[in-house]
Amino acid sequence: MRGALGGPRVLLRRLREVMAEPVSAQDRLDKIVVLIAANMVAEVCSVYVLRVDGTLELYATEGLNRTAVHLTVMRIDEGLVGTVAREAEPISLSNAQAHPAFSYRPETGEEIYHSFLGVPILRAGNTLGVLVVQNRAHRSYTEEEIEALQTTAMVLAEIIASGELTAMALPGAEPAARRPLHLKGLALSEGIGLGHVVLHEPRIEVTKVIADDLPGELNRLDGAVDTLRASIDIMLEDEGVARVGEHREILEAYRMFAHDRGWIGRMREAVMTGLTAEGAVERVQSDTRARMLRMTDPYLRERMHDLDDLANRLLRQLTGRAGGSEHKGLPDNAIIVARNMSPAALLDYDRTRIRGLVLEEGAATSHLTIVARALGISAVGHVENIVGQVDSGDAIIADGVSGEVHVRPPADVEAAYVEKVRFRAKRLEQYAALRDLPTVTRDGTEIELHLNAGLLVDLPHISETGATGIGLFRTELQFMIASAFPRTNEQLKLYRSVLDAAGERPVVFRTLDIGGDKVLPYMRAIEEENPALGWRAIRLGLDRPGLLRSQIRALLRAATGRELRLIFPMVSAVEEFDRARHIVERELTHLRRHGHDLPERVLVGVMLEVPALLFQLDQLFTRVDFASVGSNDLVQFLYAADRGNPRVADRFDALAPASLRALKAIADKAAEYGKPVTLCGELASRPLEALALAAIGYRKLSLSPASYGPVKAMLRELDLAAAAALVAPLLAEGEVASLRQPLKAFAEKAGLPL
C-alpha cells in the first residue's frame, strides 16, 4: 500500500517526529490523524479513546466535523467502533451503513462515508481505544492496509498509556488506560499492603518501534528466533528432563509454539510494515493476547502464558537484557506483582521494603504463601491478568484480608485504607497487651503457642509475642536464599543465633525439606511428574547422607551445653526414622571422639505428614521423643489434592470430618504413649481452625507470627469443654460435610474474636 506520503514506513518516521515535538496532547493527536489520513489516502481518520466509565470518546478526527471531538461518546456495546473495542479485532467494511451494528451520529457528519476500517488500540492485550479510517467510495481495504493501521495503533497506545491525555478529560471521563481498577482475588496472607507496583518479571519496554533498516531488522528477528529455539532444544535434551510425562509434553508444546510458522510469519510481516524486530514482537503478542483474553477455554488461556513467555524471551534477546527479576532499587513500599513465583524468588528481594504480593495464580497452602506469611507480607492470589493491567510504579493496594486489589486507587479509597491500616495497628497493640498473659482457656486449659520460623528476621518475634518457643524452624530457607551451598560454619552460626534468641525456650529444628517447589538455585533440579510425592526431604537426605550429616553436625555443635530438638520431614515408614536417628547417633559419636562438647540433651522427633504413618502410630510412638503434625501436606495427601494447584487446593475443607478424624487419631495416640505432639501446619494459624484443633485434643500449636495475637485472643475467650462437646458428636456421626459452619455459629454465639 502506497499513500500520498510514501507508505507506512514513511508514516512511522513522521509519527516519530510528531511524538518528539513540544506540543500539547490535543495538537499531537490532531497532527497524527492528518498524517494517517494522508498516508492511507483516507478521507477520514479518527481516534476514539476508551474512558474509565467504559464508554468511547472521540478525541481527534480529520474529515469528520471537528465540533464532534470530545462531544461524541458511545457505549462499548454500541456501533462499529464499540464492536472493535469489545472484540479487540479489526473490522473492514465496504458499506458500513449496511452493517447491523452501524450507529449513526448526526453531529459527526459521517453519513456520506461508506467504507470503514477500524482497528483496536492495544497494549499488553488490553483495549485502550479504536483507530478508524473511512472513505466515501465503496472500497475494500487490503490486508496490507489493515496491517499498517494496526502498526500505527501501537504508537497511539503508548500516547494513551503514558497518561498524556488525562489532563484533557473531565473528572470521571479520564482515559481507561490509567483508570483506577478494583480487582477481586483470593486472600493468601493476611495484612494490608499500600505501595507501588514492582513487576517480578517486568515487561520489556520497547523504546524504538520504528525501523531504519528493514533487512537488518529481519535479520535481528531471525537471529533471536534461532537462539530461542536452540535454548528450548537444549532444555529438552538435558539429561535431567525425563523422556516421558506431562512435563515433557508441556515442553514439547512450548517448542512447537517456538517453531510455529504462523507466529514467526506474523512478526516478519509486522517488521515489513516498518517496525523494529522488538516492535514487531510486541505488536503480534499484544494482538494474540487480546484474542486469548476473550477465550473461555482454560487450555487456550494457559497457552497464552506460554506465548507471553516466548515473546518476553525474544524481547530479552533483541534488547540485550538478561532475564530474571529486578531486585535492586526497590521503592520503600514495594508490592510485588507476578503471574507466580517460587519461595526462593521472593526471598531474593529486600524483604524490609516489601509490603505486599499480588499473583495471577497462587494457593492458600503453597510454600510461597507460607513464606509470605512468615515474613508478614500481605498476599493476594487469583487476580486475573494483573500483570497485563499494571505498570511498574503504579500505586496499588493489596488487601490480604478481603482478597481485594486496588490499582491506581482514587484518593478516597486510599484514605479509607490508610484508616484501615491504623485500625489494624490498634488491634495489634491490643494483641501486644496479651504478650505476658498465659494462653489459658476460660475453663482453665493451658494451650502452648509456639512460632513457625526459618529466617533471622523471624527471631525478634519470639520476644515480641511472648511465644512459648519455636515449634518449627524451617532450616531450608537459609539454603534457598544462599547463592551457594552454606558451609557447616555458616549453618552453625545461624543455628546458634536461633538458640541464643530463644534463650530458655525450646526450638524444634526441621532438617532440610527441599525438593518439590523448594528448589535450591545452585543444585541441579530433578524433573519429576509429581514432585510433592517425589525425591524430597528425608528421602533426599537418606540417599545423600553427606548432606544430612553435615547439617546434623552443625546443629549438634550449635547446641553445645543446651537441649537440641530435631525433627525429620516426609517420613513414610518407621524404618526411615530409624535410619535418620542412626545418623544422629553416628554424629554424636564422631563429635565425642574428637573432643567436642555435646548438647545437654538431644530429642529426636518426626513430622507426621504422610498418611501411611497413621497406620504405624504404635510402632512410631515407641521410637520418637516427640512428634509434630504437618497439616499442610497431611491434608493435601489425604485428599490427593495439590495444594499448589488453584483448581483443587480449596476443593476439600481441612475442617471436614475425614481430616479432623485423622488429626484426632494422632493426638489420641500421642496422649496414650505420653509423647508431646505439636501441630505446626497452617491450620494452627487461623483462629477458627485453631479452635477445632483445641477441641480434638491439641495442646501445643505452632503458628505464623502474624497469627499469634488473633489465635491467642480467641483461645483466652474459649470455653474448651463446650467446644469439645460440640465437635465430638459431629465427628462420630459424620453427617456434616464440614464442621466449619457449626464452629462459626458456635464462635459467634460465644462472642469469640475470629
UniProtKB/TrEMBL annotation:
Keywords: Cytoplasm, Kinase, Magnesium, Metal-binding, Phosphotransferase system, Sugar transport, Transferase, Transport. Signal peptide: none annotated. The keyword Cytoplasm applies. InterPro entries: GAF (IPR003018), GAF-like_dom_sf (IPR029016), PEP-util_enz_mobile_dom (IPR008279), PEP-utilizing_PTS_enzyme (IPR050499), PEP_util_C (IPR000121), Phosphohistidine_dom_sf (IPR036637), PTS_EI-like (IPR006318), PTS_EIN (IPR008731). GO terms for molecular function: phosphoenolpyruvate-protein phosphotransferase activity. It comes from the Bacteria. Residues 24-170 form the GAF domain. This is phosphoenolpyruvate--protein phosphotransferase. Gene3D superfamilies: 3.30.450.40, Phosphoenolpyruvate-binding domains (3.20.20.60), Phosphohistidine domain (3.50.30.10), PtsI, HPr-binding domain (1.10.274.10). Belongs to the PEP-utilizing enzyme family. It is found in: Cytoplasm. Coiled coil: none annotated. Pfam families: GAF, PEP-utilisers_N, PEP-utilizers, PEP-utilizers_C. It catalyses: L-histidyl-[protein] + phosphoenolpyruvate = N(pros)-phospho-L-histidyl-[protein] + pyruvate. Its EC number is 2.7.3.9. It is an enzyme of class 2 (transferase). Its main location: cytoplasm. Its cofactor is Mg(2+).
